[in-house]
Amino acid sequence: MQSKLSDIELIEQTLAGDQSAYADLVKRHQRFVFTLAMRFMKTREDAEEVAQDCFIKAYRSLESFQGGSKFSTWLYSIVYTTAMTALRKKRVDTDSIDDENTYIQIENTGGYDVNNVENKSRSFYVNQAIAQLLPDDATIITLFYKGEQSLEEIAQTMGMEANTVKVKLFRARQRLKEKLERNLKDEVKELI
């Protein structure tokens, strides 16, 4: 069962000619790659195109992966540069991001679960606030919290110094807090 193998083992098998090993790598990382692509692109179609381009680029460059960082860090840096290139080509206004499709939520639980409903509601408001951030802020927040990347890994992904990422993460958290407070304040007014 290849899904139990590490990313490095799957890469080695892919380089040895096992195409199904790369398919397993894609399956393992596709949701997060798509989520990160959605942070930059306005439409689901554009994000899907960026995600597909990333996996093609990663496959073609797999031999150049040296293992100095996690595969996910290397892959997310491809997502970042591919999305930035796509935005430059399209000259898309990145200040407003369509938050309707920001995250794919795959939770098919049967029955009514109060905790699940509360978590989905909380997740909705957080995702909505993240979608209102500038692309770099949204990326750093997403990589740090959703991708569980370290400051050094984020720095490598985004091509900046770790200290710069630390400062940007601090500022992005502040902006996220402001967005959440403003959004939730409006929600409370609607309830009253």
Summarize the structure.
The protein has eight helices and no strands.
What does this structure look like?
It is a single chain. The longest helix is centred in the last third of the chain and has 30 residues, at 162-191. Mean pLDDT is 78; it is low at 92-118. The N and C termini lie far apart (54 Å). This protein has helices spanning 7-15, 19-40, 44-60, 71-90, 114-131, 135-146, 151-158, 162-191. It is globular. Helix 2 packs across helix 3 (44-60), helix 2 crosses helix 6 (135-146) and helix 5 (114-131) packs across helix 8 (162-191). By secondary structure, it is mainly α. The chain has two domains: 1-94, Rna Polymerase Sigma Factor, Chain: A; 113-192, Winged helix-like DNA-binding domain superfamily/Winged helix DNA-binding domain (Arc Repressor Mutant, subunit A), CATH 1.10.10.
Topology record:
Elements: H1 7-15, H2 19-40, H3 44-60, H4 71-90, H5 114-131, H6 135-146, H7 151-158, H8 162-191
Structural class: mainly alpha
Helix content: over 70%
Which CATH class of the largest domain applies here? Mainly Alpha
Strand content: under 5%
- Average pLDDT reading: 78
Number of strands: 0
Assign an overall shape.
Answer: globular
- Architecture (CATH level 2) name of the largest domain: Orthogonal Bundle
Total domains:
2
Q: Mind describing the biggest β-sheet?
A: none
Terminal residue distance: 54 Å
- Count of separate DSSP helical elements: 8
What is the CATH T-level topology of the largest domain? Rna Polymerase Sigma Factor, Chain: A
Query: Mind telling me the C-alpha Rg?
Result: 18 Å
Task: Please trace the helix and strand order, writing H or E for each element.
Answer: HHHHHHHH
Low-confidence region ranges: 92-118
